[in-house]
């Protein structure tokens, strides 16, 4: 979050601690690293099989100097680590629990993370895997998630950006949303910004009339990542903490058929790294995935030790410190081998995460419609199809008049009767064209159907990141588009910030690329740090650029318009198919 004129945004963990309303109320805490699907009967077996595949890949590839990797015995690291005892650096840690003596109603961000578990506060993360965190537990309703999000954003605006809520009427807001999102939830978030938080946008010019100006614009993360990187077209791979998304963006447009979302990210790598360190005799034996302080430490260890550089081989010695409230500062020695490479490689072999029974891959499906919007894409597609049929029927009657007395069916190709409207919008348009386009249009429809079938075959399965990129590219219609995607792969987000990630991903894509494209693609360019910027802020930087463009004037949604027309304004003003 930040002003468009800021060099860098502020980063605030989207976590909130709410004080219990009643004495003795049961404490609830949304988990950071633990997730559903890890306790299934075959979860451990799947994890071990995934790690075996990772090991096979590691040992099958030589280092850049042509030498085989040095064999490392896991038992060697385990024997060393098990005998390690921590050294006390400071008997009193300078890290303190958040002071709750004044009993604040809520605490946000870092303060919420450091609330003492003994205090009467529940911990909520309102966003999970790119969506609002809706679940059956306390604080898991849509209303509660929106209230938490509003509180976190309002707090950040007032305390960190020093913008009072009553002054929000002088500000415009750009909201970045995932390419695959729950439209109903996004509608509620826009309503929260415009109506509840009050981005009402009074004019700043004293001489201007006191009428509100348009204030909120909604845009996609992938498109804004392109704006921030300065590229015109690329396959955008956004690797976050809990989800990874892939799509093709060209000239400011995200191609619908290329979008997919994977339900894993950097936090899953952290958890996998912890398991691997435990297998190697991790000397901090009290560490638990259910403890948020330990989760913060594990995240730091992953960022410090893990890599994707296959030239690093053999056992290496490391050290780390534990610095927790009400505890001494301890120094640990740690010896690790391939564990540092195995954990991030799980992004390419997600079976190693051990997640069973969860939907791991999502595709973009057509909206189910909204009662507030009578002219949504269902209506547009239906009317377009009927108009095309009517035009064709008129043309046929003029060119081929019916013989006298002939009684035949007048609506042989009604797409609604044949179930055509069950496909995505792009496919529906192709079918409408098929009604009037002859053989060429039929070939287009056939190609779209075949790609649609290929994409739906893996929906829900755990695809590796490289395979997801290949499937996304293969979903594009033309070979020229596919060539552009292979030529430029833009990686943003903070989930792949490992040394050697650029070369590793480039090698994976090159090896798995269909042979027919190796002649067409001169080079697979993987960009992980566009303009030498932190990839975690690229999308925000693109949103800041977007806010300053003249063309953005057409995207702003006015508070008064929203109150009158509701979600229809998103369909009319969004720079993409809502």
Blueprint of the fold:
Blueprint: E1 16-19, H1 43-60, H2 74-82, E2 87-90, E3 106-108, H3 110-113, E4 121-124, E5 127-128, E6 131-132, H4 142-160, E7 173-177, H5 183-197, E8 216-220, H6 221-229, E9 233-239, E10 244-250, E11 253-254, E12 260-262, H7 266-279, H8 292-305, E13 316-322, E14 329-336, H9 339-345, E15 361-363, H10 377-399, H11 425-457, H12 465-474, H13 479-487, E16 488-492, H14 501-512, H15 515-518, E17 525-527, H16 538-547, H17 559-565, H18 568-573
Parallel strand pairs: 7-8, 9-16, 16-17
Antiparallel strand pairs: 1-3, 1-4, 2-14, 5-6, 9-10, 10-11, 10-12, 12-15, 13-14
Helix pairs in contact: 4-5, 6-16, 7-8, 7-9, 10-11, 12-14
Key descriptive features of the protein:
39% helix; 18 helices; seven-stranded mixed beta sheet; 17 strands; three-stranded antiparallel beta sheet; 578 residues; Actin, Chain A, domain 2; alpha+beta; Actin, Chain A, domain 4; 13% strand
Short description:
With 578 residues, the chain is an alpha+beta fold.
How does this structure look, described?
- The structure is a single chain.
- The protein is α+β, with helices and mostly antiparallel strands and 578 residues long.
- Among the domains are: 91 residues, Actin, Chain A, domain 2; 135 residues, Alpha-Beta Complex (Actin, Chain A, domain 4); 82 residues, no CATH class.
- Helices cover 39% and strands 13% of the residues.
- The strands form five sheets. Strands 9, 10, 11, 12, 15, 16 and 17 form a seven-stranded mixed sheet that branches.
- A hairpin with a 2-residue loop joins strand 5 and strand 6.
- The longest helix has 33 residues.
């Amino acid at each position: 979050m930040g002003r468009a004129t800021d060099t860098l945004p502020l980063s605030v963990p989207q976590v909130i601690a709410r004080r219990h309303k009643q004495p003795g109320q049961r404490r609830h805490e949304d988990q950071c690293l633990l997730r559903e699907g890890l306790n299934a009967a075959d979860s451990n077996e799947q994890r071990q099989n995934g790690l075996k595949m990772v090991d096979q890949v590691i040992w099958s590839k030589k280092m850049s100097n042509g030498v085989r990797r040095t064999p490392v015995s896991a038992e060697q690291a385990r024997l060393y680590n098990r005998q390690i005892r921590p050294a006390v650096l400071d008997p009193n840690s300078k890290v303190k629990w958040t002071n709750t003596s004044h009993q604040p109603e809520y605490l946000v961000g870092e303060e919420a993370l450091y609330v003492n578990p003994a205090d009467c506060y529940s911990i909520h993360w309102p966003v999970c895997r790119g969506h609002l965190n809706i679940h059956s537990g306390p604080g898991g309703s849509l209303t509660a998630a929106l209230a938490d999000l509003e509180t976190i954003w309002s707090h950040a605006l007032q305390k960190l950006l020093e913008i009072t809520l009553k002054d929000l009427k002088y500000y415009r807001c750009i909201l970045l949303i995932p390419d695959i999102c729950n439209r109903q939830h996004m509608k509620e978030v826009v309503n929260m910004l415009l109506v509840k938080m009050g981005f009402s946008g009074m004019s700043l010019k004293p001489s201007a009339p006191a009428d509100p100006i348009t204030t909120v614009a909604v845009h996609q993360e992938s498109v804004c990542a392109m704006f921030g990187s300065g590229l015109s077209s690329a396959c955008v791979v956004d690797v976050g903490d809990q989800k990874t998304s892939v799509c093709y963006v060209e000239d400011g447009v995200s191609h619908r058929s290329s979008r997919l979302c994977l339900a894993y990210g950097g936090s899953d790598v952290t958890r996998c790294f912890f398991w691997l360190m435990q297998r190697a005799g991790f000397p901090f034996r009290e560490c638990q995935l259910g403890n948020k302080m330990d989760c913060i430490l594990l995240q730091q260890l992953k960022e410090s030790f893990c890599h994707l550089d296959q030239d690093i081989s053999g056992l290496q010695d490391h050290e780390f410190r534990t610095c927790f409230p009400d505890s001494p500062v301890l120094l640990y020695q740690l010896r690790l081998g391939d564990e540092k490479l195995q954990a991030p490689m799980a992004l390419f072999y997600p079976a190693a995460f051990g997640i069973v029974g969860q939907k791991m891959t999502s595709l973009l499906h057509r909206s189910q419609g909204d009662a507030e919007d009578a002219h949504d894409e269902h209506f547009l597609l239906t009317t377009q199809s009927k108009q095309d049929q009517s035009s064709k029927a008129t043309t046929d009657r003029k060119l081929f008049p019916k013989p006298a007395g002939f009684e035949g069916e007048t609506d042989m190709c009604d797409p609604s009767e044949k179930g055509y409207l069950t496909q995505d919008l792009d496919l529906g348009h192709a079918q409408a064209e098929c009604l009037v386009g002859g053989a060429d249009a039929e070939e287009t429809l056939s190609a779209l159907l075949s790609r649609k079938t290929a994409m739906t075959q893996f929906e829900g399965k755990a695809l590796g990141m490289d395979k997801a990129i290949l499937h996304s590219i293969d979903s594009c219609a033309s070979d020229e588009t596919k060539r552009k995607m292979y030529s430029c792969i833009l990686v943003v987000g903070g989930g792949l910030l490992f040394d050697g990630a650029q070369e590793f991903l480039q090698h994976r894509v090159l090896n798995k690329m269909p042979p027919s494209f190796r002649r067409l693609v001169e080079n697979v360019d993987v960009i992980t740090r566009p303009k030498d910027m932190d990839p975690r802020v690229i999308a925000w930087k693109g949103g800041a650029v977007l806010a300053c463009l003249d063309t953005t004037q057409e995207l702003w949604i006015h508070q008064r318009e929203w109150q009158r027309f509701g979600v229809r304004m998103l369909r009319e003003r969004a720079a993409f198919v809502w």
